[in-house]
Amino acid sequence: MTPTRLRRRPLAAAALLAAAALLATGCSAFGTSTGLGEEGRAAPAYYARTTTVGAAPAPAAERGERFRKDGGDKAVQAIDSEGTEEKVPRVVVWTDRKGSYDASGFDAFKAKVVDYLQRGEELNAPHGYLLDVYGAKGNLLHRIDARS
After folding, report:
1. 130-134 and 140-145: which strand pairing?
2. 94 near 60, Cβ under 8 Å?
3. Partners of 89 in beta bridges
4. Are 56 and 95 in contact, with CB atoms under 8 Å apart?
5. Which of its termini does the chain have fewer beta carbons within 10 Å around, N or C?
6. Which backbone phi and psi does 141 adopt, to 5 degrees?
7. What letter does residue 19 receive in the DSSP assignment?
8. At what angle do helices 58-69 and 103-120 cross, to 10 degrees?
9. CA angle 44, 128, 104 (to 5 degrees)
10. Is residue 20 left, alpha or beta, with left meaning phi > 0 and alpha meaning psi from -120 to 50?
């Protein structure tokens, strides 16, 4: 091997490790936008495309309570789907969880949330949705892009 090839291996290994870590979390590195939705509405004030979130607005907390009463995850404190971004709804869920869901638990969780929103809250998502789930301290637990 040439010296150049040997120097490239650590960089390739680091890139591979970073990609594997991203895939293991189930999150996406994509999805940057202008912040304006299909109707030109800006992202809600609490959402700043970061890995932390502020307090939930009162309507979102009320929706979270309805979700729990309907048999949803007791950790859910609030749910908002008012923001639109990149022509699909942005669903933001506040929980009191300290850590992430495992893969199968998260799949069941997101299915339950989206089903509830479509059935009980008239969420219109024919082209998919964006979903952020935040933990007890406002830290990002999951971020997915479920656009079709």
Report:
1. antiparallel
2. yes
3. 84
4. no
5. N
6. -100, -40
7. H
8. 100
9. 100
10. alpha
Contact 82, 38 (CB under 8 A): no
Question: Using CA atoms, how far apart are residues 85 and 66, in angstroms rounded to an integer?
Answer: 25
Q: How far apart are CA 66 and CA 95, in angstroms?
A: 14
How far apart (Å, rounded) are the C-alpha atoms in residues 43 and 36? Answer: 6
How far is it between the farthest Cα atoms of the chain?
A: 65
Tokens of 144: 């997915």
**Half-sphere exposure of residue 145: CA atoms within 13 angstroms, side-chain side:** 12
Angle at 109 between CA 108 and CA 115, to 5 degrees: 90
Residue 113 CA: distances (Å) to CA of 21, 63, 71, 72: 26, 11, 10, 7
pLDDT in tens, 93-128: 999 999 999 999 999 999 999 999 999 999 999 999
What is the per-residue pLDDT across 12-64, written as a single tens digit (0 to 9) for each? 444 444 444 433 444 444 333 333 334 444 555 455 556 678 889 999 999 99
Tokens encoding 148: 């079709």
Whole-prediction pTM? 0.67
